[in-house]
Structures are given as C-alpha cells and as structure tokens.
Amino acid sequence: MLLQVIRDHQDAQEMSLGTFLEQLGDRSFGWAILLACLVNLLPLPPGATLVTAIPLLIFCTQLALGFSSVRLPQRLARIRISGGAMRRIVLRLRPISRRLERIARPRLPAVFQPRREQLIGCLLLLVALALFVPLPLSGWFPAISLFVTSIGLVERDGVIVLTGAVAGIFSIALTVFVATSILIGANSLLH
C-alpha cells in the first residue's frame, strides 16, 4: 500500500506529509507505529522512552478513537516531500516490502472491523504506556509487540495482529511485574 501511494505520486513535484498519510488511509496507523517503534528498538539511554514513546501514544490513541488515518499537527502535516525523495523511498523499501509480503498477507479480515480495530488501538495504547514507563529491562518487549502488530496492520494480516496483541499483553504483564518488584524492593529497604 505504501509503495503504491508513493508510485502514484512519484512523478509529482511534491506532496504534503498530511496528504500522504491521508492517502494511506487506515494503513497509515501501521506505518506510523512501525516507524516510531524502530526508534524505540534502538539501544537508547534509560529514560529515553519518556520522549520516544510519545508519538506511539498519539498514534495508538487515534486508532483507539476510530480515526480514519493518522492525523499530525498542522505544522508537521504541511511538511512537503519531493518527488525525488519519494522515488528514493520506493527503492529503499522494495527489499523490505518483498520480505514482508512473503510472511504477511491479508488474513482474518474480521480483526479489522471498526470496533475491533478500536479495541486493538486500546490494547496498543496500554502497550505504549508500558513502553513509556522508564523501567529497566521492560522497554524492549512493548516495542517488539508494537512492531509486530504494526506489520499486521500494514499488511492487513489478522494473524500477525493477534500475535502482536498477545505479545503486547505479555509485555504489559512484564512491566507490571517489574514495577511491582521495584516497589516491593524499595518498600523493604525503607522499612
């Protein structure tokens, strides 16, 4: 879908980022979450997720509220993308998209009914909140589960979305476990 939108507009002089995301439609959530997850999968210093998880919180909230596509603040939405940049994006993403297409394909379309997609958005928001909490050893799991789910959203693959959702529930449980352990440890040191 992303490559198709880019191909459709690669001859244009330029296009705004907001228009680009709008043309991706509901798949814009998958791409936005995927790109934001990549930042969170980098080895970052402790506490960095307090900043890097903010876009994920925004995108997941919009999905949970039933928006038709990702909406950016006007200042970001007006950023222009040149036709040359779009052509370079197509060339760079082609190997990645081919690999994704081997694994992911449209399956379980019932997952993508509007109400169910909003429920997925609510779960992803909770996962993004788990990522946002700066706890040691707990940040990678929410980021990985969001990444897996975003691939399913992009490719409309309900099996991958559900796999990511299960991983997300596990990552929330892990975050709660780590937070509880830290609180119990701190409480025992104080008393």
Kindly describe this structure.
72% of the residues lie in helices and 3% in strands. It has 191 residues and is mostly helical. The chain has one domain (2-190). The model has no long low-confidence stretch (mean pLDDT 84).
Give the ordered list of helices and strands: HEHHHHHEHHHH
**How is the largest sheet built, in terms of strand order?**
1-2
Question: What distance separates the N and C termini?
Answer: 58 Å
Major sheet characteristics: 2 strands, antiparallel
Could you say which overall geometry the principal axes of the C-alpha atoms support?
Answer: globular
Radius of gyration: 18 Å
Spans of at least 5 consecutive residues with low confidence: none
Number of domains: 1
Range of strand content:
under 5%
Mean pLDDT, nearest integer? Answer: 84
Query: How many beta-strand elements?
Result: 2
Content-based structural category: mainly alpha
The helicity comes to over 70%
Number of helices: 10
How would you sum up this structure in a few lines?
With about 190 residues, the chain is mainly α. The chain has helices at about 1-10, 15-25, 25-40, 50, 55-65, 75, 85-105, 115-130, 140-155, 160-190; strands spanning about 15, 80.
